[in-house]
Write a structure and sequence with these properties.
Helices cover 63% and strands 10% of the residues. The protein has four domains: 1-152, no CATH class; 204-348 and 536-678, no CATH class; 368-414, no CATH class; 417-521, Sandwich (Jelly Rolls), CATH 2.60.120. It is flat and about 90 Å long. It contains 26 helices and 15 strands. Helix 14 (301-334) runs antiparallel to helix 20 (533-559) and helix 20 runs antiparallel to helix 21 (564-579).
Length: 678
């Protein structure tokens, strides 16, 4: 053991010499080029092949039975420079590639699907088909290693590489490739976290007071068991999540499940780490009198608190970078698993790993004068209601507001209801980008009919613009998707969708459905691509970081005034209340004061309703800023939403709670509250 320690010290001393760092850098560059060079070259060739296949597929037409379409249907292949590219698996789904007009509408995606039959098995198709991403990842990985060398962690990287490589070799011999990838991920994540902490410590090593406090907090985070436990759990559990996902599920559900669990795990662990560490670092320093040594130096209480928030924000940024990159990498690896069918593979690229904008129909608004007349006539014709107003039991303003809300809801719901055998048209606007996009937009619908039984199947006729109607069969309450032909979108970016509540027989006769169908306000929407998954994912991580900054400010402010247990209790309560505010809103909608109870119970119920309502109203933006649902659903997280989150939560809320804590901390007598059991 002593000799091992001596050798370790010698190696660490050896890498501190500048000449030896140049040697390590040169060696790592050579290894990186040797390993990543073939990947870049394969990506370049694969990308060229894919675009050539797309060019050939654009000429395929099964309606005309031209040779390209016939070869694709019969042999599941296309010919490029005299070489057939395809497979039996492609032949079995080839008929699904053609649309109702007999052409391949999504030639870009289908070309990727066909080219995947000859793609390198050691590289994810979703990455290798984009050379610029491959080149960026390669350069970033080499830069990552060089950074490790020049901050004095080159030998540590080699040690982690050897240990992880040994375990990976063991699982490779045991033919357990999933555990092999998990071990590689755990080793890489642990080293990346340590490296980023080292870089942060170097960046914060400034004589300025705020930087010094933040620097000290990062050092403290490395030795506290609270932070070590949370960080260790994240770095170990995250790479194991793919092992717990059922591979029998459609691929799009596997990826959505991992995104949900992965991003959720990263944020929850980062939030818990922030809550406990922010409260511990301040309250423990006050309790143990360490703060005496700090505040007797030329540092103000404001600088002390701000330095703590800065250090926590940097730590959260590191956790999100490591965890976020890990989730993104594993999403790319999961996308290489075999899809259930062609529709499943298309859904992965066009509905999950994408950023889509949502457009909903434009509905008519109820005339204000007509609504006022309806409210007045309703009150006038209801003698009991009118008498309750005269007796002061009910307020006329509240009654009018309730009737107005009910009638407006009924008016809007009537526009989303279609009687049996009847049709209704809906206008969508703002689809100019969808008309010019290479990716086809989709209509997503969720219909209600009869008892909404998941065992029943009902027909509906759908037509886009002036195109002929076609029948689809849907299961109530289940989400369904149909592709929209781009030519159906007008030049001004509008689209007319007509729904007929019924089906069509084999001889062309339309028959009505037995019941009326309807849908919710978000039950009919057009989704079209406006960006890629990568940028969308970055914006989601940025929103999570902003929310963590607020949690850090909340914890530091609470701990500066309260003892550790009370500060944790207060911070966790606010965090949980903010996270479940949508459920609180739903509970308030169904909450009613019991008219049969005695006056004391009614007063308490009234008090509970108002307090919960105030809490829900004030904390609702925290949950509304959540990005996980949009990310899973492939919806675009706009920069408007990001900037709104930064302004409201990152600046306004964080500043407010920080200043409340500072004003109380400024008047606090530290000597009185130090040295006890608080």
């Amino acid at each position: 053991m002593i000799r091992i320690r001596e050798w370790r010290e010698r190696l660490f001393a050896w890498q501190d010499v500048t000449r030896n760092r140049w040697i390590l850098s040169f060696a790592f560059i050579l290894c990186g080029v040797a390993l990543l060079g073939p990947l870049c070259w394969s990506s370049y060739n694969y990308s060229k092949l894919r675009w050539r296949i797309a060019s050939v597929l654009s000429e395929a037409n099964i309606a005309e039975k031209n040779p390209i379409a016939v070869q694709l249907i019969e042999r599941g292949s296309v010919t490029i420079d005299g070489v057939e590219i395809g497979s039996e698996r492609i032949r079995t789904v080839a008929d699904q590639m053609f649309d109702r007009n007999g052409v391949i509408a999504e030639a870009d995606y289908v070309s990727s699907f066909i080219a995947s039959s000859v793609s390198p098995g050691w590289a994810p198709v979703t990455i290798i088909e984009r050379p610029w991403i491959v080149a960026g990842i390669s350069l970033g990985f080499i830069a990552f290693i060089l950074l490790a060398v020049w901050v004095g962690m080159g030998i540590q990287f080699m040690i982690v590489l050897l240990l992880s490589g040994g375990l990976m070799a063991l699982f490779w011999v045991l033919s357990n490739l999933q555990l092999m990838v998990a071990v590689a991920g755990i080793g890489l994540l642990i080293f990346a976290f340590i490296l980023l902490i080292r870089i942060a410590l170097i960046s914060l090593s400034s004589p300025r007071q705020i930087m010094a406090v933040a620097h000290t907090l990062l050092i403290e985070a490395q030795r506290l068991r609270i932070s070590i436990g949370f960080i260790g759990a994240l770095l170990i559990i995250l790479p194991l999540i793919p092992l717990w996902i059922d591979q029998r599920e459609p691929l799009r559900y596997q990826i959505q499940t991992f995104i949900s669990r992965g991003t959720g795990l990263v944020f929850v662990i980062a939030a818990c780490l922030t809550l406990f560490l922010s409260c511990a670092t301040v309250s423990f320093e006050i309790r143990d009198r360490q703060i005496w040594n700090v505040l007797t130096k030329p540092i103000s209480r404001f600088q002390y608190m701000f330095g703590k928030v800065l250090g926590l924000s940097v730590l959260n940024g590191i956790v999100l970078i490591v965890g976020g990159v890990a989730v993104f990498g594993y999403v790319q690896l999961l996308s290489t698993r075999a899809p259930a069918d062609l529709q499943d593979a298309s859904a992965v690229q066009n509905q999950v790993l994408v950023a889509r904008a949502t457009e909903r129909p434009a509905y008519k608004l109820m005339d204000v004068e007509k609504l006022r007349d309806i409210v007045n006539s309703t009150i006038e014709n209801d003698s009991l209601l009118k008498q309750a107003i005269l007796d002061g039991i009910k307020s006329e303003v509240d009654v009018a507001r309730e009737i107005r809300s009910t009638k407006t809801t009924e008016f809007m719901a009537a526009q989303r209801t279609i009687e049996p055998g009847k049709s209704r048209s809906f206008e969508f606007t703002g689809l100019q980008n969808a008309r010019q996009s290479a990716s086809q937009p989709t209509l997503r619908y969720v219909f209600h009919i009869s008892q909404d039984s998941s065992h029943d199947l009902f027909p509906v006729l759908i037509s886009f613009g002036d195109s002929p109607a076609f029948q689809v069969n849907y299961v109530p309450v289940q989400r369904n998707v149909v592709v929209i032909p781009i030519e159906a979108i007008r030049e001004d970016g509008t689209l007319r969708v007509t729904l007929l509540n019924g089906g069509i027989t084999s001889d062309g006769q339309i028959y009505p459905s037995p019941w009326s169908m309807n849908f919710d306000a978000d039950g009919l929407e057009v989704l079209h691509r406006v960006g890629g998954f990568e940028a969308n994912y970055f914006r989601a991580m940025l929103i999570d970081w902003v929310k963590l900054i607020f949690i850090a400010s909340l914890g530091v402010a609470a701990a500066s005034v309260l003892s550790f247990p009370v500060a944790v209790l207060l911070s966790v309560t606010i965090f949980i209340a903010a996270s479940i505010s949508p459920f609180l809103a739903l509970a308030l909608e169904n909450y009613a004061i019991s008219p049969d109870s005695n006056i004391l119970i009614q007063i308490s119920q009234f008090f509970i309703e108002k307090v919960v309502g105030a809490v829900q109203w004030s904390l609702a933006p925290f949950a509304a800023a959540g990005s996980s649902t949009d990310l899973i659903d492939g919806r675009a997280i706009t920069w408007t939403k990001v900037m709104s989150c930064i302004g409201q939560i990152g600046i306004l809320w964080s500043f407010a709670v920080f200043m409340l804590g500072f004003l109380a901390f400024r008047k606090k007598e530290i000597a009185i509250y130090s040295g006890g059991d608080s």
